[in-house]
């Protein structure tokens, strides 16, 4: 029995994913060697440098992967909650055991090696979420059904953000939104997220830019105009009356036109006028929802009011809640501040490194930006710079496409499951990889603020490599078991 | 799964992944294909181009004797952006043995864009230059402590002899003009400022090399870039062999000591300048290195004008030496024959007195020998009036134009434009226009310009032109523009005169007689068969200028000489002995007349002449 089951594992395991995993790990290793290469370098296996150390981590990761494949698949289901509890305790204890590394309290020393428990938390949270949502009797029908899953991801995220001061690692838990969405959470939640980001950027970037006419700021007016458009869209959608949309947009346009006219003589406060229009539409929606019992519009009304408050709060959040270094990173990203020597240094040097790679790259081990250490963190969070500089546009899109293929493969694996637990877990894995890819590459390319999270399999570091190995190989083990469950 | 109402959401999630990756690919395309600015920025981050300076070509005399060579010096450059916060200024000052105040002042100067237009934080700026090996030894040992500091080796000129300063010229730092005009130069480079150093700058300077080095983010050097594929070695400048005979040059300068004047010696059949001495001059070593600018200003302010190369830039009336040309032109243009006789009443002659006592009437050979002024006045008058004056003086003016053209065909009154001597004056042979302006078209006659007949008046020539004149007579009718580069034969620049050879024979005969019976007889050396003509030139600056032109041996001239000693008196007394000894030196290799050499060399005729 044991022999036949282990035989099954090697037949049923998804070799395509393992192949992609090996490609990414190997290419990542080459680039760590490239990034940490100096001119008196001897060998990629020299254990005194990072490529040599990464080799040890890779060997460890392969061993870990093999062990994970050999463990009985039921173990993960059984141990999910216990592991979750243990992990919460470990995360709580970490700040007290850790020593401060660049302001972060997330590292525990185990003899010669440092480990970051937060990297392993992702996997365990995914298992717990999968276990909770994969129960036979669980159905995602109302927002109440999401309370526990949100708590499952919220608690470790809060611990990591507040106690360990690792904002990046905590943000990763936002990836679970895609999992919930797949399981039936309303798509409007995702849209709300997109709206929140958009409103935040607009109100921060243009909040202080005065309008050319009247009084008020470009940021507030833009936010309110967007909100007005969203409101009209929903009123029209829920009410099923096309002409109403026309009347409403016409009236709004008329009000703005009159204001513009008056503005010739009296300077009009356009931000207050736009907020008034949004408020009037809210009242209208409340009226409609009660009168015609279209309660969905009530939600839109609440959302609109929330947005008005949120735009007002953005500035407060930005100046008071965010840490100064986070604020500067965002200002640099939005082009509000030039600081090539300070906060913008990483991003600027990363841009130079990638840009100077041109189409075909400078060639392996020939990148001057990375060889000469102009890009800080170039073998960890900014490892993609080395790819861009030495392998050029061709190599960079090659890596991106391998990742895309890898993530699509994980979604494919998720979809072929007949077991909710495995499917939810698989989506968690796919979402976490996607989130890491998006944040890390977006940061390196200067499209997102600097958030320190690793590029899976590429960035130097044992914790992250082993954390991702754990995440991936548990999925592969569960996937390999999908046939066994049929029997 | 069965009954999965959200099945289609897998496409939304896959779509999100695809959209993100596509956005990133677009961004990569922008960064790596469209935006071209980053490649240069990466290079300026990482690559340091270090210039390797070629050694400047050496300068030799005609016998292969080394005149100018190079000595190593060092300069210290700073790259401001590499000097971090921990940069230890005090230790740096201690290494160089300078005060903190000096350091700060120098840094201010470097950063001042008005004084230092090329300033950039990213490129090395010269902090101190022209340092000796011992000045930088301490710094060199602890260079690693000071990021951004480089020691650059350069060369300075050094000289074997304290001679020929005017000819050799000097090397100095380039100015903004040079940098703008020629992209070979960068701030702090050196180039030939005058003399041969300037004329042959392109040959002597060689090609700069470059070494492309990499530096890391901390400013530490990390070896050569791409295994030195982009490096270029420096190519040393090409050596210059001059036509100078340094022994002759030294003798000329020795004999001119204490006097203001110049001496030029030319090898007649090649046009090669054997010696070109101008006094006062300076020791070429004082215009080198740190002391250069200070000394240059002092030289500039010296009232005796040592920076002026009197041999090529000073102009004098040629005086009686001009009678040789006068004879040739009058013979050629048919005003006289060798047998034509003119009367001379000695000092009582009119309109021009004779300064010598000799028989009367005289023929040409005796007239040259005795430098008879009335003879040449009569010859000149007859030449100009040969066709009468004509209507509106047209015939006379035409004759004058022909005469002037013939005089100028000796190279007089104009620069040798095909020569490699940079600093030249043209002098002047007065034109018809000039006299028209003074006197009106019909207002001047032969008698008006009588001074010209004996080389006085408005006629002005340089000593170089005088020497060339002597060479032309020695060559019997041609000259090759005088020049200083031995490798450039200049034979293609042969200038032929329209004067028959037989006329030259007469004049040479006369010049030979000068050295036997005439004004030069006291300084002749029998065996050398010298020929010459003295001149004593009245001038508004004081005593007469002493002038002598000559060549030897008479039959097969090897050397032509012109000597001018300002305000010295008779040409025969001061200019002739100097020329005579130079001829002796060149033809025999030594000066046997030790007493004469000592007497002339040690005579101080002008107290203002300083020894540099």
Describe this structure in words.
The complex is a heterodimer of chains A (487) and B (612). With 487 residues, chain A is an all-alpha fold. Chain A contains 20 helices and 2 strands. Chain A folds into 2 domains: 2-185 and 331-486, no CATH class; 190-321, no CATH class. Chain A has helices at 2-12, 15-36, 50-70, 74-97, 117-133, 147-163, 167-171, 176-182, 187-206, 218-239, 242-263, 270-291, 296-321, 324-333, 345-356, 368-371, 383-415, 420-444, 462-480, 482-486; strands at residues 108-110, 113-115. In chain A, helix 5 (117-133) packs antiparallel against helix 6 (147-163), helix 9 packs across helix 13 (296-321) and helix 10 (218-239) packs antiparallel against helix 13 (296-321). The longest helix of chain A has 33 residues, at 383-415. Mean pLDDT of chain A is 85; it is low at 1-6. Chain B has 2 domains: 48-241, Penicillin-binding protein 2a (Domain 2) (Alpha-Beta Complex); 246-297 and 311-602, Beta-lactamase. Chain B has helices at residues 9-34, 37-46, 89-96, 100-111, 133-141, 165-168, 176-181, 195-199, 201-205, 246-255, 292-301, 310-313, 323-332, 364-370, 373-384, 394-408, 432-439, 463-474, 501-516, 571-588, 594-602, and strands at residues 47-52, 59-60, 66-78, 125-131, 149-159, 171-173, 190-192, 209-215, 221-224, 240-241, 261-267, 272-279, 478-480, 494-496, 531-539, 542-552, 559-565. The model of chain B has no long low-confidence stretch (mean pLDDT 88). At the A-B interface, helix 8, helix 15, helix 16, helix 17 and helix 18 of A face helix 1 and helix 2 of B.
